[in-house]
Amino acid sequence: MMRGNSKKKMGSLIAAVVIIVLVVALIAAFVLLINGEEAGAGGILWIYVAVLAAVVIGVLIALRQRFKEISKGEEDEAKKY
To answer: What is the spatial distance between Cα 69 and Cα 28, in angstroms, rounded to a whole number?
Structure first.
């Protein structure tokens, strides 16, 4: 049973890391674009950066909740029904 939990946690962690890496790459691209833009366009790009930062925070929160679910065995309990 512990082995299954370890696999579940690793899978969740890998998925979260992939999403975070992609989003951080987008944030970096937007920041590079902001440096060459006018004030108005730069402001809009900062909104995109803020939204993408919120996505990273959401992924981290979801990962934390997933780890708690796995540790408590909630998924295994649900399989019984």
So the answer is: 33
For residues 24 and 56, the answer to whether their CB atoms sit within 8 Å is yes
CA distances to 1, 13, 25 from 64, rounded to whole Å, are 20, 10, 22
| Size (the chain), residues | 81
Non-local (6+) Cβ contacts of 32 within 8 A are none
* Dist CA 40 CA 16 (whole Å): 33
Q: What is the pLDDT of residues 10-42, one digit of tens each?
A: 999 999 999 999 999 999 998 888 887 676 777
In the DSSP assignment, the letter for residue 17 is: H
Nearest to 48, CA basis, from 26, 21, 65: 26
Rounded Cα distance between 34 and 46, Å, is: 8
pLDDT at 1 over 50: no
